[in-house]
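User: My collaborator sent over this chain with a note saying "see what the structure looks like." That's all I know about it. Can you take a look?
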Amino acid sequence: MSEVLYEVDGFIATITLNAPERMNTISGTMLNELSDQLLRGDRDRKVRCIVITGAGKAFCAGLDLASQMGKKESLGVLDAGSDMGAEFDLRTAPPVVLHNLDTPTICSINGGAAGYGLDLAFGCDIRIAATTAKLAPGFAKRGILPESGGTWLLPRMVGYAKAAEICFTGRTLSAAEGLELGLVNHVVPPEELHAKTYGLAEEIASNAPLAVRAIKRMMRAAETETFEQNIHHVFLQLLPLFKTQDFKEGVASFMEKRPANFTGR
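Assistant: Without extra context I'll predict from the sequence alone. Here is the result:
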């Protein structure tokens, strides 16, 4: 069975890291599969939200260092003796692919998220964690650094000083601490994680998909634009939305006081 599962139910795609016997640590094969499935969901116009989760008790315990040390396969950036350009294209690496998706993403953190797995969670738009989940940014304890987006994402999420403390100490955080810091949006008992995750995904999917995708693009663009640049950029994104059937439906449903039925057209 594939180490990365992909399933669509209604408007929601679920990508599951499927190596529970090793706590879903990321192998070289999984890197490619994960990127492929993320792009698959983003290209499917029927998909309005992507949920990423893990099989078994863990979400993702990081890169599969045991395999890497044994040289069973190459993880590209970790293989100092390899030709990185030939084996690892940063443009198609999961953190870059995930960051550039227009489809909203929710990370359902069902268990431990460590190292690469934690950065993967941080790369999603929204994070929902089980009370039993642990957030382990232990890069400094392993002699490496967050190579999968953490140094860019974390300071923007919690501010520089908090990010420095989290990264420099490598201290494992509980789900409750993650909620307090703003690293996760919601924390729920494990038995409620599925309902909470997919309830939120359904709420997102019920909105106009073209508008949601445009909102996400503009929020991403705002990271590198001035206020004035972003306002002009948003206006250019707004004009084609005025011509969509979804805009007409949104206005009509509001006037008629009924739920909207958006088609993505």
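A starting point for your reply to your collaborator: Residues 72-86 have pLDDT under 50 and may be disordered.
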